[in-house]
Amino acid sequence: MATRDEPGIMDFVLLDEITIERFMENLMIRFNAGFIYTYIGEVCISVNPYRTLNIYGQDYINQYKGREIFENPAHIFAIADSAHRSMKMHRQDSCIVISGESGSGKTEASKIIMKYIAAVTNLTGQQEVERVKNILIQSNIILETFGNAKTNRNDNSSRFGKYMDINFDFKGDPIGGRVINYLLEKSRVIQQQLGERNFHSFYQALGNTTHKEASNLGLNPDPQHYFYTRQGKSTITPADKSDFQATLSACKTLGFSATDIKTIWKIVAAILQLGNVTFSTNDDDSITVTNFHNNPVEQVSKLLEVDAKDLLTALSKRIIAANGELLQKAHTLSQAEVGRDALAKAIYDRLFTWIVSKVNEALIPYIENDKYKGGTVIGVLDIYGFEVFEQNSFEQFCINYCNEKLQQVFIDLVLRQEQEEYKKEGIAWQEVKYFNNQVICDLVEKPHQGVIAIMDEACLNVGKVNDEMLLEAMDSKLSNHKHYSSRQVKTLDKDLKHKTQFKILHYAGDVVYNIYGFLEKNKDTLFQDFKRLLYSSKNPIIRDMWPEGALDIKSTTKRPVTAGSAFKISMIALVKTLNSKMPYYVRCIKPNENKAPVGIDYKRVVHQVSYLGLLENVRVRRAGFAHRQPYNRYKMISGFTWPNYKCSDKEATRALIDENHFSNDVKYGVTKLFIRSPQTLFALEKMRAELIPAIVILLQKQWRGAICRAKFRKMKAAYFIIKFYRRHKIRTYLKSVLEAHRLTNNIYF
Ligand SMILES: Nc1ncnc2c1ncn2[C@@H]1O[C@H](COP(=O)(O)OP(=O)(O)OP(=O)(O)O)[C@@H](O)[C@H]1O
Fold it and tell me: Where is each Myosin motor domain found (predicted)?
């Protein structure tokens, strides 16, 4: 079990000075001693240990259950318990926001939290609750198969953001849940960097071609055979084979039908086959589908249950309606290739969304049952952290915007909590200086003026605007913005490439984005012909995934929401969800690039500390009177106040503070003592810690005395009873003897 004998300082708020050097020193002392968790107030910092630690067992669960955060050594269980307790005791919805860069341990943290919550609920062992917990756990397996992939940073990297609600009934038992997914990295379907892989699902299908569930897919088991799994030079690992079984069994637990499961694997196989469709240019500039390698077009049409001729047409031509007439327009080679890849990405994206909706179908019915009205929720958000690569594109732009929003929620929350606490305790609020990143959120999301609006406007002018022109539009509208820069608007910014890059000064640091691909990725269009084709599928599951394919070709369709706007809408909804709950934070840090259990890569960690805004977090938390303790905590320190004192705890505390000359460093709240500097807190804590052993001995002595006295009283009572009983027995005996004597001697009284 954990002890309080901890290396370093368990809360960064207690650092004597807030500098990155002191922060890192404490982080390293603790990590090197095997302590991966440290707090900033109630925020838990977690450093990935890259080894199995024996700190998540039942003994630890018991130690943290029902305890206040600061009663035990820093641990993620304390955060989970706090969220669970506030949900149970105050009937308040809460959510745990987990962030950090890829490989920092977010998903592991979310599983540890789930495990803790599962362990502390349902002590009565109801079957129904066990079933719901099982569904929640199994749903993770499915989401990881279709949403995770091996990257160079993490062998099991989540390539989507995930928010999961767990719903509890009024007794605090889990009764269901709901998953919301954010921005799947669908570009991975068609392209991976060297050493990386496509989503796990593809290798699971390939590794199990003889398994009955995958035997009719017509797949070659070698990933090198398929363009979409070939680029990373990937192979099937043994895990993929057994993971396939786990996925199947999870799908069955969640109530996926045999047809559902078959369709999922058929879609996965169809995407692999689609990647092998190639094109060549004819003399007249038209294109032909070359269709090498076992006629992939035929295979795709079979798997998706669409007409092969229609598929061939959709891959090589577009049908457009002009003046009420339908015209066929042949693709150029690049249009055909872009169209094929867009189709592959869109099919997988729809499949993933459909899988999430099926998972939700398994989780939701209980929540909507009237019987469970009035329940509460704990949400867990496992979302991508700030991303900065050599080349940053539209995806990093969205992810960093997401982090900008989360940071805003976080700082707002910390300030709100602080103000409420000061108000409740009757202490005048002192303004805290902090960086308000609203200005950066506005730069991205402001209607008509933000980057997303400018991109959307450019997307309206189909074919007429390219990425370079988009950059020009951004330059002209944002040139005066303090957090925007490009070579054109700030000629001194020599590190930026002319007409190619722009820079955003995020709260966490500067990020240079390459404009190339922004327009196409924001438009995120799939030719209407493909939508109609998929809607014509004889497989009702596939048809239902593409309802917009039902639209009449001649009717003017509403322009679909762009990817940027859709993401903005989902972020605004997420912020609303978080603001309606009591948030708790886990900030994950990756110690090194080698996935090694020892060694902190100093520069890399400093980078993450700054991108997670941790020093800013300490600063806000440290402003004013950062440390608060209830009045009865120190009463034993002074001879005036312990063991006998006639005044209130508050007066007693005031007496001992005066006695120790700390009055200039504290303020007196209604129920708590507010302490400004860590030094005063340490001094008080030290005095308390020194006295505790003596008090324990005193209490033990008193307790033993009390036990002995109780025992003595019991014995005395027993003797008393025995004495009376004996007396009663003797009296009865004598009475009977006398009676016998009277009868034999005929004595009459
Ligand atoms: N608490 C932990 N104990 C032991 N190992 C851990 C822990 N946290 C993370 N790891 C190890 O680090 C690996 C990466 O962690 P995880 O997948 O949770 O990262 P992530 O932040 O979710 O990454 P991504 O954003 O790429 O999905 C895990 O597979 C596991 O091996």
Answer: 7-689
